[in-house]
Amino acid sequence: MDINHLKERILSLKEAKGAVILAHNYQPPEVQDLADLVGDSFQLSRAASRMEAETIVFCGVRFMAESAKILSPQKKVLLPAPDAGCPMADMVTPEDLREMKRKHPGAPVVCYVNTSAEAKGECDICCTSSNAPKVVRSLGAKEVIFAPDRNLARYVQSQVPEVRIIPWEGFCPTHQRMTPQQAAQALREHPSALFMAHPECPKEVLEMAHFVGSTSQMLDFAESSDAAEFIVGTEEGMLHGLRKRCPRKTFHTLSPAPLCPNMKKTTLELILRSLEEEVEEIQLDPQVIHRAQGALSRMLEVI
Ligand code: 13P
Ligand code: SF4
């Protein structure tokens, strides 16, 4: 099937089923262009909780589609690429969190949304990379368990020094691979560029950044900044959205370009199959949903 025919079939089936397509900022360009909404983890969670459509096609990775299901259990949530996981989300289990709580009694648990539904059930509140310092401050606690991303935990510690952060030692393989040498090389090659980095990057890379933020916060920063040139310290899928939003500005990745293989598993063919056959529908035990819902909803209430 040629690409235009494929897109037409997806759009007409989407219309007929009253579905919406949500896509993360790292998705392939053709998927982003087809989506009703493209955003970061926080925006997509919030949209899923407010959406009227009965079916959500979630172009991203499993924990994101699960979050949509947890926030809207009555809706059908479809994940077109069923094997799109997040290695960082697999680095912490509910048992790990229970053990951590036993070791630090009384310390609330903040879970990055990059966790399984079961792990979310063991935490007090979720956060994303766009609101992590705010979420930690909102707890008013002296110490906080933060899982699973050690780099985001260290970044939060630098922003919220009054709270002791107890990190879990997980990481994102895509961001962990970025080095200060790569950032230095890009800054040498593009001396007038501003360097934007995702808080999942190692501390030494973040220390070199002019701006640290979530994927959508990078889009806003690039748009509102007076600068004309930027180095993008995150997954290369961001370049598509940045170039679309700021067509007169120039964007460079690090070399080699950071790639999340799981985010690239979604294809137009899989989206069509997902709408035609309603696969893979996210199914979660109602008790798991109930336990995880509190943590996600509390995050959405933090302003
Ligand atoms: P954002 O919430 O910034 O979109 O990040 C999600 C993610 O998986 C980053 O690796
Ligand atoms: Fe997970 Fe990293 Fe991919 Fe984000 S970029 S989905 S954290 S593996």
Number of helices: 15
| Uncertain spans | none
Q: What is the name of the CATH architecture of the largest domain?
A: 3-Layer(aba) Sandwich
The CATH topology of the largest domain comes to: Rossmann fold
Mean pLDDT metric: 97
Q: Write out the distinct hetero groups bound to the structure.
A: 1,3-dihydroxyacetonephosphate, iron/sulfur cluster
Total domain modules: 3
Spatial order of the strands forming the largest sheet: 2-1-3-4
Radius of gyration, CA atoms, in whole angstroms: 19 Å
Biggest beta sheet attributes? 4 strands, parallel
Proportion of residues in extended strands: 15-25%
Portion of residues in helices? Answer: 40-55%
SSE-based structural type: alpha/beta
Task: Note the run of SSEs as H and E.
Answer: HEHEHEHEHEHEHEHEHHEHEHEHEHH
Binding site for iminosuccinate: 24, 41, 112-114, 129, 198-200, 215
Binding site for [4Fe-4S] cluster: 86, 172, 260
Protein name: Quinolinate synthase
Subcellular location: Cytoplasm
Structural write-up:
It catalyses: iminosuccinate + dihydroxyacetone phosphate = quinolinate + phosphate + 2 H2O + H(+). It is found in: Cytoplasm. The protein has 15 helices and 12 strands. The chain is of the alpha/beta class. The chain folds into 3 domains: 3-85 and 263-283, Rossmann fold (3-Layer(aba) Sandwich); 89-171, 3-Layer(aba) Sandwich (Rossmann fold); 178-253, NadA-like (Rossmann fold, 3-Layer(aba) Sandwich), CATH 3.40.50. The strands form 3 sheets. It has a 4-stranded parallel beta sheet with strand order 2-1-3-4, with helices on both faces. Strands 6-5-7-8 form a 4-stranded parallel beta sheet, with helices on both faces. Helix 1 (3-17) runs parallel beside helix 14, helix 3 (41-50) packs parallel to helix 4 and helix 12 runs parallel beside helix 13. The radius of gyration is 19 Å and the shape is globular. The structure holds 1,3-dihydroxyacetonephosphate (13P) and iron/sulfur cluster. The site of 1,3-dihydroxyacetonephosphate (13P) has 11 residues, from loops.
